[in-house]
Design goal:
414 residues, alpha+beta, Elongation Factor Tu (Ef-tu), domain 3, OB fold (Dihydrolipoamide Acetyltransferase, E2P), 6-stranded antiparallel barrel, 8 helices, 18% strand
C-alpha cells in the first residue's frame, strides 16, 4: 500500500492535474466514477507498472522474511544406560550447575560388579604377598643346596687327595665315583633351586603386576558403569519438562528424562536464524546490515548484521536408504538459512529464546559507488537501489507498531 501511494504521487496525481488544469475537466462532471479509467488511463497504467517495479526492486535488493526465530540449543537429559529411576535430586524448571547430579538409576548390579573387582584386586595383592614368601623360601633352598654342594665338593676333594697319595689303600675307587655323582646331583639341585627362584621372581615382576593391572582395569570399568547410574548436568542451565518419578524406566534411545536449556542459549554468540526466499540467495551476503522486531520485545527495532549465509537449501537433502528417490517429495520449496547477530552488544538480551521475529536485510552499494570511473547510469541505479531501502525500513516500523495489535486483538492473543 505504501509503494502504491508513493507511485500514485508520481503518476496518477500529475495525470489528474493535467486533466484538471490543462484540459479543464472536473471531478463529478467530466471525471466520474465510470470515466476515471478513460480519463486517467495513462496515470493508472504508469502507477501500476511503477508499483510492480518498485515492489520487485525493494523485495529483491532489500529482502524481508517473517520466518525468523531467536534460536537456542537444548540438551536432552539422557542416561548412558537403561535403568529404573531410584532417586531424584532436582525438579522441573530448577537451575542446575554443570556436573550437578540430576537423578540416579538403580545400581545394585553395578555395585556388585565393583565389589567383585575390589576382591579381585585384593586376591592379587594376597598372591603377591605369598609370592614374596615363596621368593624368600627359594633363596633359602638355594643356600641349602649350595651348602650341600660345597660339603660334597670338599669331601670329594679330600678323598681324591688321599687316593692320589695311596691309590686304592686309603679310599676305594668306588667311593670316589659315588662322591662325584653326589657332587653332580648337588649341582643340579642348586640349578633347580635357582630356576625355582627365577620363576617366583618372574611371577612377582611380570605375572602378578599384569594380573593386578587387569584387576584394576576391571575395577575402573565397574566403577565407570556405577558412575553412569548417576546422571549429571552437562552444562549450566535450567531443567525443563523434567517429569520423572521414582520407578520410571529411562532409555537413552527412546525415553529421555527431560530437557536442559543452557543459560547462554548453548551458542557461542546469540543470534537469529532467518529463512529468506531462494530468489534472494543472489543478494544475501555476510556483512549486510539488517533489522528485526520480535514478538517478545514489541515496538523495538533491533539493528542486526548478517554473519553467515548457508550456501545450500535444506529442501534438497537426501540420504542413503532402501527406497528410490521420488522428486515429488520436494514439493515444499526450501529457504536460504541466514544467521543474524545484533549489531551492538546486548541487542537480544530482552528477546526471549525461541521468539518469533520479522527481519529485513538491506543491500548497500557504498563500496561500488566509491569505485573510480563508474558511469552516470550505474551510479543513478545504485543510488536508487540504496534509496528504496528506506521504504522497507518504514514498512518494518509499521509492522513493529502494529505487531502487538495484530497479536492481541486480531488473532485473539495467540
Amino acid at each position: 500500500m505504501l509503494e502504491l501511494l508513493v507511485c500514485s504521487l508520481l503518476t496518477i496525481f500529475p495525470d489528474y492535474l493535467f486533466r484538471r488544469y490543462v484540459q479543464g475537466k472536473r471531478i463529478g462532471r467530466e471525471i466520474t466514477f465510470y470515466s476515471v479509467w478513460f480519463e486517467l488511463r495513462w496515470g493508472l497504467v504508469s502507477c501500476l507498472l511503477l508499483t510492480i517495479g518498485l515492489i520487485t526492486l525493494i523485495f529483491y535488493f532489500h529482502p524481508a522474511t517473517t520466518y525468523v526465530t531467536a534460536v537456542f540449543r537444548s540438551v536432552p537429559v539422557l542416561p548412558q544406560t537403561n535403568g529404573r529411576v531410584a532417586e531424584i535430586y532436582v525438579r522441573g524448571s530448577e537451575r542446575v550447575e554443570r556436573g550437578q547430579p540430576l537423578f540416579r538409576l538403580d545400581d545394585a548390579t553395578q555395585r556388585t560388579a565393583v565389589d567383585t573387582a575390589h576382591r579381585a584386586v585384593a586376591e592379587v595383592d594376597a598372591a603377591t604377598a605369598l609370592a614374596r614368601a615363596d621368593l624368600a623360601a627359594a633363596d633359602a633352598r638355594i643356600l641349602e643346596a649350595q651348602g650341600a654342594l660345597d660339603q660334597a665338593e670338599d669331601e670329594l676333594a679330600t678323598k681324591t687327595e688321599l687316593n692320589r697319595n695311596a691309590p686304592n689303600l686309603a679310599v676305594a675307587r668306588r667311593e670316589i665315583e659315588r662322591l662325584q655323582v653326589t657332587v653332580r646331583t648337588r649341582e643340579a639341585g642348586v640349578e633347580a633351586a635357582r630356576a625355582a627362584r627365577q620363576a617366583v621372581a618372574a611371577r612377582l615382576s611380570d605375572q602378578l603386576p599384569a594380573q593386578r593391572a587387569s584387576a584394576e582395569a576391571a575395577l575402573a570399568q565397574a566403577q565407570a558403569e556405577l558412575d553412569k547410574t548417576v546422571i549429571r548436568a552437562g552444562v549450566t542451565g535450567r531443567v525443563e519438562q523434567f517429569l520423572l518419578q521414582v520407578g520410571d524406566v529411562v532409555n537413552p534411545l527412546m525415553r529421555p528424562a527431560g530437557v536442559l536449556v543452557p543459560e547462554d542459549r548453548g551458542l557461542a554468540r546469540p543470534g537469529l536464524a532467518a529463512g529468506f526466499g531462494q530468489i534472494e540467495a543472489q543478494v544475501m551476503r555476510p556483512g549486510m546490515l539488517a533489522e528485526a522486531t520480535c514478538v517478545s520485545q514489541p515496538w523495538t527495532v533491533i539493528p542486526m548484521v548478517v554473519t553467515n549465509v548457508q550456501n545450500f537449501i535444506a529442501a534438497g537433502q537426501i540420504r542413503g536408504s532402501d527406497q528410490l528417490l521420488d522428486l515429488q517429495q520436494f514439493r515444499q520449496p526450501g529457504s536460504v538459512l541466514v544467521i543474524l547477530e545484533p549489531l551492538y552488544p546486548g541487542g537480544l538480551d530482552r528477546v526471549a529464546p525461541g521468539s518469533s521475529c520479522i527481519a529485513n536485510a538491506y543491500t548497500s552499494n557504498h563500496e561500488a559507488l566509491s569505485e573510480p570511473g563508474i558511469g552516470v547510469g550505474r551510479r543513478f541505479a545504485l543510488h536508487a537501489i540504496d534509496a528504496v531501502g528506506l521504504v522497507h525500513a518504514i514498512l518494518l516500523r509499521i509492522q513493529a507498531l502494529l505487531l502487538p495489535v495484530r497479536t492481541l486483538v486480531l488473532t485473539g492473543g495467540h
